[in-house]
Amino acid sequence: MSIKVSNLTYTYMKGTPFEKIALDNINLSIETGEFVGIIGHTGSGKSTLVQHFNGLLKPTSGSVYINGEELAGKKASKLKSQVGIVFQYPEHQLFEETVYKDIAFGLIKRGEETDEIDRKVRKTVSMMGLSEDILSKSPFELSGGQKRRVAMAGILALEPSTLVLDEPAAGLDPAGRDEIFELISSLHKNNKMTVILVSHSMEDVAKFVQRVVVMNKGRIEMCGSVRSVFNKIDELERIGLAAPQITYLMKRLKKKIPELNDNILTVAEAKAELEKYIRKE
Amino acid sequence: MIKDITLGQYFPGDSLIHRADPRVKIILTLVIMTNIFLIDSYLAFAAFAGFIVMAVFIGKIPFGYTLKGLKPIMPIIVFTALINIFTTPGILFAGYGPVRITYEGIDIAAKTSLRFVLLIMSSSIMTLTTTPISLTDGLERLLSPLKHLKVPVHEFSMMMTVALRFIPTLLEETDKIMKAQASRGADFDTGSMFERAKSFIPVLIPLFVSAFRRADDLALAMEARCYRGGEGRTRMKQMKLSKVDYKIALSFLLFEIVLIYVQYFKFHI
């Protein structure tokens, strides 16, 4: 499912002394099945932009199109349900008595049949790698990583075709982090979902996404393939961002060993490159 | 969504009134409020309105902001005015059958409405030019003599400060949770009153959970910094009366003399 944003401007608290332009004339299009990363400094407008994708915020001017149809008016609520947003710390939105009820919340709101709800809840739970035992537990007695997966399940149960994730791994331990990202990339690969990842971690972005959008002060500063964006280290650093750490390491190594390739973004790539060099020796 | 609510309604600025000591502002506002109930000649009202407009001007607050506070109590003003107009006995101005409008009624209605408007405006000038934190600080200092009567003044003001501090945080949190629930199908705007109230449960429960978590964290952080109540506690920001305060107090005194003169000795309209 494609998302197109044209001339989008958004102003917070318009007409008060606290007025702030959060998005300034944004043009962007995301194609079906893409895995896009959005990076930027805190307050660069990433979260604001993402909240326009399912109509949580209404553009001050400009428009958002989903599958070519404008996200406004009568069709809006149907188009909205195509885009699922997983907010930062999604476990803070859990509220029901049992995990089952919490995951079913959106489906019940949508007015689906009971057995259809049951099927979807169980399907998402297994997709999220959770056991069915927890369905009858209270969401508040789960561990941090489990809570997060339950919260994500509440959104995935609605079967959106696009998934937006805002810092999905924030506050998780390394193991939990890997699990979440494995899950996300399997959703992208196996379920053919369009995934938009908002993140501060250049490593995660470099490892998983295909295309990167760099935001700065409410504008799109750069947009392109992961490799082309992370190649412009100076520009990234100028706006308070950076390349993945492994890239810096490889650039340093290249100064000692000139025949190394320093266009490296992930640890796996670095490993392969170094092994190749060592074998040649 | 909810971010558009201005609470505490402080209007940032650097005017004479902004810089004044909160204690001075609190006392003056109290005096002004009592004054509003003591005056009863139109000339005194006019003088008062002039004074308040001047204060708004000196405080560099957009005029519309001071009137904003009037909106919620407008029905009350209109209601009392109507009651006064129709129920006060006196010399007939106009009437039809049992409906009688008297000169006295119009007079009382006009004056009560004016009192309401002036009250709201003068108190908004104080809240618009003082941060909530310095207001509670000022209150604490003003009420500190009550400590001798074993009233826990410091604790109360600390509670108020903490509460005020967390209003924007909780509003932000509410906004976030509402958005999160809205993106999985919650609907806050349609349905009957009962349905809409019910639709807030998915917001309220997470909000309470997070409020308790925050309270816990804050208590721990305060304890880690050795907070143990008001006894023997010194302040980082000492409140001191400055030139600005004397200026304001003096000009207010002048105004008060004019007001007393207008009210009691001359031009009794």
UniProtKB/TrEMBL annotation, chain A:
| Gene Ontology CC terms, in alphabetical order | ATP-binding cassette (ABC) transporter complex
Keyword Transcription on this protein?
no
What EC class does the entry list? translocase
Taking every annotated instance into account, which residue ranges of this chain make up the domain ABC transporter?
A: 3-242
Task: Tell me the domain of life.
Answer: Bacteria
InterPro entries recorded:
AAA+_ATPase, ABC_transporter-like_ATP-bd, ABC_transporter-like_CS, ABC_transpr_CbiO/EcfA_su, ECF_ABC_transporter_ATP-bd, EcfA2, P-loop_NTPase
Where is this protein localized, as stated in its record? Cell membrane
The keyword DNA-binding belongs to this UniProt entry's keyword annotation: no
Q: Which UniProt keywords apply?
A: ATP-binding, Cell membrane, Membrane, Nucleotide-binding, Translocase, Transport
Topology in the lipid bilayer: Peripheral membrane protein
**Which molecular-function annotation in GO is an example for this chain?**
ATP hydrolysis activity
What's a Pfam family this protein contains?
Answer: ABC_tran
- The EC number(s) this enzyme carries: 7.-.-.-
Q: Which SUPFAM superfamilies match?
A: P-loop containing nucleoside triphosphate hydrolases
Q: What does this protein do?
A: ATP-binding (A) component of a common energy-coupling factor (ECF) ABC-transporter complex.
Family note? Belongs to the ABC transporter superfamily. Energy-coupling factor EcfA family.
Q: What PANTHER family does the record tag this protein with?
A: ENERGY-COUPLING FACTOR TRANSPORTER ATP-BINDING PROTEIN ECFA2 (PTHR43553:SF27), HEAVY METAL TRANSPORTER (PTHR43553)
The protein's assembly and partners: Forms a stable energy-coupling factor (ECF) transporter complex composed of 2 membrane-embedded substrate-binding proteins (S component), 2 ATP-binding proteins (A component) and 2 transmembrane proteins (T component).
Q: What is the protein name stated in its UniProt record?
A: Energy-coupling factor transporter ATP-binding protein EcfA2
UniProtKB/TrEMBL annotation, chain B:
Which positions, given as ranges, span the membrane?
A: 26-58, 73-96, 116-133, 244-264
The molecular function terms of the Gene Ontology recorded here are:
transmembrane transporter activity
Location of this chain's protein in the cell: Cell membrane
Query: What's the protein's topology in the membrane?
Result: Multi-pass membrane protein
Q: Which Pfam families match?
A: CbiQ (PF02361)
Where would you say this protein principally sits, based on its record? membrane
Q: Which InterPro entries match?
A: ABC/ECF_trnsptr_transmembrane, ECF_transporter_component, EcfT
Give the domain of life. Answer: Bacteria
CDD domains on file: EcfT
A cellular component term from Gene Ontology for this protein is: plasma membrane
UniProt keywords (A-Z) are:
Cell membrane, Membrane, Transmembrane, Transmembrane helix, Transport
Signal peptide start-end: none
Q: How does it assemble?
A: Forms a stable energy-coupling factor (ECF) transporter complex composed of 2 membrane-embedded substrate-binding proteins (S component), 2 ATP-binding proteins (A component) and 2 transmembrane proteins (T component).
Q: Which family does it belong to?
A: Belongs to the energy-coupling factor EcfT family.
Q: Which PANTHER family match?
A: SLL0384 PROTEIN
Q: What does the record give as the function of this protein?
A: Transmembrane (T) component of an energy-coupling factor (ECF) ABC-transporter complex. Unlike classic ABC transporters this ECF transporter provides the energy necessary to transport a number of different substrates.
Q: What is this protein called?
A: Energy-coupling factor transporter transmembrane protein EcfT
